[in-house]
Amino acid sequence: MVFCESQWAGGWVNFEAYLYSSDPYIRRCWADAEAAAKGMPAFSQGIRNFWQRACSTVHEENPVRLAGWQVEAAEPGLWIRWLGEGGKSLGRALYLPPEIVPKGLEGKENFLFRAEGAPEGWPFSWLLAMAPMPGRQERHAGGLLSHLHFQFSSQRERLFRDGRLCQPAWYATMCDGSGTLLEQCNIIRALHRLPLWEALSSPPAPWADGR
User: Fold this and answer.
1) Strands 147-153, 126-129: parallel, antiparallel or unpaired by DSSP?
2) Mind giving me the DSSP string for 20-88?
3) How far separated are the first and last CA of the chain, in Å rounded?
4) Res. 96 pLDDT band, cuts 50 70 90
5) Helix axis angle, 47-55 relative to 24-36, nearest 10°?
6) Three-state DSSP class for residue 203
7) Which is nearest to 92 in space by CA: 63, 70, 108, 67?
8) Residue spans of beta strands (DSSP E) within the chain
9) Residue 186 parent element (H or E)
């Protein structure tokens, strides 16, 4: 696995924004996903409830839901500004080229970053992340919006210990912030193996429960 700064640079949006969105097209995608997953034990309490637990960026070290990242290539490394709700800065740090973790999220190779000079107890001192997938440029050729799974903590040992993830079910997720509404919808649809939309050509049907 090769670390490529250019694939990270730019704006990223926390996938939780999709989960809590009031946009009617996004809501229709979640309704379709709920219908497709009906009867699946993993989603017995609802699709969105499942992802709200898996993707939450609020925990004991960080009381604020993330809005996203603003990333600049440092060559080598990355400058990452962590953004809270409303775009408020939660801090910015330099993350040098990372260590490679053999079995991280999804059992695949992950990057493990450390923030240079971070204050003690800062919740973003360590960042475990998959490489962006697909490459950010692929959306221009009809590919899915680039996205990645990640975890963060003030301490390395809270993420990865004895060759294993401490929280293997935690899948916080960032999506390319330059994505259109159609591309955002298709991330949800692809995640649940639903047919992708070619366009937002007609008003979406309301949710079955009337919300």
Assistant:
1) antiparallel
2) T---HHHHHHHHHHHHHTTT-GGGTT-HHHHHHHHH---BTTB-S-EEEEEEEE-SSSEEEEEEEGGG-
3) 44
4) very high
5) 110
6) coil
7) 70
8) 10-14, 66-73, 78-84, 89-95, 99-101, 110-114, 126-129, 147-153, 160-161, 164-165, 172-176
9) helix 181-191
Residue 116 has pLDDT above 60, yes or no: yes
Look up residue 177 and give its two tokens: 């912030």
What pLDDT score was predicted for residue 42? 80
For helices 24-36 and 181-191, the axis angle rounded to 10 degrees is 10
What pLDDT is stored for residue 40 in this prediction?
Answer: 84
Contact 145, 19 (CB under 8 A): no
Q: Residue 78 pairs with which residues in a beta bridge?
A: 73, 95
The answer to whether 200 touches 182, Cβ cutoff 8 Å, is: yes
Rounded-to-integer distance, Cα 74 and Cα 184, Å: 28
Q: pLDDT per residue over 42-83, tens digit each?
A: 888 889 999 999 999 999 999 999 999 999 999 889 999 999
Distance CA 33, CA 49 (A): 12
Strand 110-114 relative to strand 99-101, pairing: antiparallel
Is pLDDT larger for residue 40 or for residue 206? 40
Task: Using the structure block, give the residue that is written with the tokens 């080229």.
Answer: 97
Q: What mean pLDDT is predicted for residues 167-182?
A: 96
C-alpha 21 chain-centroid distance? 15
Which secondary structure element, helix H or strand E, spans residue 16, and what is its range?
Answer: helix 16-19
Looking at this protein, which amino acid is placed at residue 85?
E
